[in-house]
Fold this sequence. Notes:
Layout: E1 8-9, E2 13-16, H1 23-30, H2 33-39, H3 47-58, E3 63-68, E4 73-84, E5 90-101, E6 116-122
Antiparallel strand pairs: 1-2, 2-3, 3-4, 4-5, 5-6
Helix pairs in contact: 1-3
Amino acid sequence: MGMVTVTTRNEQLELRPFTLADTEDYYDLVRDPSIAASAGFTPAHSLVESEFLLKQQAKLPQIFAIELTAIHRVIGSVGLYERMRNTGEPATLEMDSRVYVERSILGAGHYDGSSCTYFTIRV
Length: 123
């Protein structure tokens, strides 16, 4: 059975799976130290590193690209991530919902939150 692909959009934004065509836009996200720190990794230093990280993200069906439809550019990501305990072990049946948005977009009428917002969902 194949993976289900979910895409949704409104006038400004589209949520869709990441593709390798998003590598340059994704690099703008993952090289930002504040986004990398809140996501739990070190910033990417090259497009090659960004492509590696993007390939890992693309394997996760619960992670979506946030595309600004007017310019067809990925400006962030939203999804469910496995919650980790302080010991580094996964928390059984707990997920974090996280939204990462490029800093240049914050306050530009597309998103008015912080660079990383998350909450816990217990299944």
